[in-house]
Write a structure and sequence with these properties.
The protein is an all-alpha fold and 223 residues long. It has ten helices and no strands. Bound molecules: protoporphyrin IX containing FE. The site of protoporphyrin IX containing FE has 20 residues, from helix 2, helix 3, helix 4, helix 7 and helix 8. Protoporphyrin IX containing FE binds next to helix 2, helix 3, helix 4, helix 7 and helix 8.
Length: 223
């Protein structure tokens, strides 16, 4: 309860929930990269995900719970922070001035919109029912996730929506990681270059990694 009431405690909750979701994002990126092994690669990965339904339910509930906490406390921190201006809360000015840090609430909101769209598209498969993997099975009788992804990203607007979505997600996470490093007390001038670099590296991994799928499919590099 103490954690929930003081501002450092809330920042710790933001860091822990954010870091857990970041771990999921990295695992998801590595899992999705199995598409480069062809239909068997990604369809095996998707079938393995669905094989253990208890594990899947636990992951889904954890993500949902952590995402709700993150949104709730993120909104609260922003409101408090705005009300306390011009002082702001105790982060170093050179980091708090970046575009990503000033727009966390907006990039967070756009990430939420992107995730809702993504779930409707690939998990519930309602936005493009004509290419749903529920309808198509591969040669081994599994949901054909490969075909669903390839047919999706041949649409310019869907591919663009994903490239923009993961660009914004990368921006949000880049400041998230910098802020988390400061939350655990690593806040000195000496490690600023490292903090700034960690954000940049994360943005590059997330953006280039995830956008490589729609770009490779849309441009026909990957058929
Ligand atoms: C081009 C990029 C991406 C591709 C191709 C992709 C692909 C997929 C696919 C195929 C599924 C459904 C898996 C299944 O049920 O069989 C899925 C689920 C999901 N994706 Fe992605 N994804 C991408 C980016 C992202 C990003 C950036 C995030 C995080 C912000 C994300 C979060 C999720 C979540 C939360 C689920 C639901 C997992 C569950 O079933 O509980 N995805 N994704």
């Amino acid at each position: 309860m103490y954690l929930l009431k003081n501002s450092v405690g809330r920042k710790i909750i933001m860091s822990v929930t954010g870091f857990t979701m970041l771990t999921f994002v990295i695992v998801h990126l590595v899992g999705n990269a199995s598409i480069y092994d062809g239909p068997d690669g990604i369809n095996t990965y998707a079938a393995a995900l669905h094989h253990n339904s208890t594990f899947l339910l636990a992951v889904r509930l954890t993500l949902l719970g952590f995402c709700s906490l993150h949104v709730f406390f993120g909104t609260l921190l922003t409101l408090r922070n705005n009300a306390a201006k011009p002082q702001g809360y105790a982060v170093n000015k050179s980091l708090s001035a970046t575009f990503a840090s000033k727009n966390m609430i907006w990039t967070g909101l756009l990430v939420a919109v992107f995730i809702i769209y993504h779930l409707l598209h690939f998990t519930f498969q309602v936005t493009n029912p004509e290419i749903s993997a529920f309808k198509h099975l591969d040669a081994k009788g599994r949901h054909d996730v490969f075909t669903m992804i390839v047919l999706s990203f041949r649409h310019l607007f869907i591919a663009l929506a994903y490239v923009c979505g993961v660009g914004i997600l990368g921006l949000h996470l880049s400041h998230g990681i910098q802020s988390s490093i400061q939350t655990v007390g690593l806040n000195s001038r000496k490690i600023f270059p490292f903090i700034l670099k960690s954000g940049m590296i994360l943005w590059i991994i997330i953006f280039l990694g995830f956008s490589s799928f729609p770009i490779a499919i849309l441009t026909g590099i990957f058929k």
